[in-house]
UniProtKB/TrEMBL annotation:
The gene is 109537391. It comes from Dendroctonus ponderosae. This is Phosphatidylethanolamine-binding protein. It holds the Pfam family PBP. InterPro entries: PEBP, PEBP-like_sf, PEBP_euk. CDD domains: PEBP_euk (cd00866). It comes from the Eukaryota.
Length: 177
């Protein structure tokens, strides 16, 4: 996938500049069970409930961070909870997620009823070194997460790879309590 296509899509959907300062240069391959591939497309909450397989062009000797973000909470029109952290894995060797430290476990889309389409984006950052994060300290604090601020705090620079899909509420979304 040409990098310009990634950049064009991130810019066209306003992920840049709403959540990121610069678009990724490369593509993250994201495939859900049933061969549902993320490619700047629409998917259903049921299709994206299980954790996907994710890969990117990686040097197996280097460390990376993978994040999945919903910038449209509770809705794209009024994103007062921007951003919701759906997944965060740091210290990944190459693109082998099993080697990383999961800071926030994977959560599929769960847009509330009546909030329209939400964008869910994946980004990968190259790490200059290991990231020290105590336990799953972000697990309980997923609302108002800022991938921009996280990248700044950990000196990650701009994302090197990305992808996204859109999804909206359907009857498969669990009720919130």
């Amino acid at each position: 996938m040409a990098s310009s296509n990634v950049a064009q899509n991130f810019t066209a959907e306003s992920i840049v500049p709403e959540s990121l300062d610069a678009a990724p240069d490369d593509h993250v391959t994201v495939v859900y069970p049933g061969n549902k591939t993320v490619l700047f497309n629409k998917l259903t909450p049921a299709e994206v409930r299980p954790q996907p397989e994710v890969s990117w062009n990686a040097d197996p000797t280097q460390l990376y961070t993978l994040a999945m973000i919903d910038p449209d909470a509770p809705s794209r029109a009024t994103p007062t909870f921007r951003e919701i952290l759906h997944w965060l894995v740091v210290n990944v060797k190459g693109d082998d997620l099993s080697t990383g430290q999961t800071i926030a476990t994977y959560r599929g889309s769960g847009a509330p009823k009546g909030t329209g389409s939400h964008r869910y984006f994946f980004v990968v950052f190259h790490q200059p070194g290991p990231i020290a994060v105590a336990g799953n300290d972000l697990e309980a604090n997923r609302r108002n997460f800022s991938i921009r601020q996280f990248a700044l705090e950990h000196q990650l620079g701009n994302p090197i790879a990305g992808n996204f899909f859109q999804a909206e509420w359907d009857p498969s979304v669990p009720e919130r309590r």
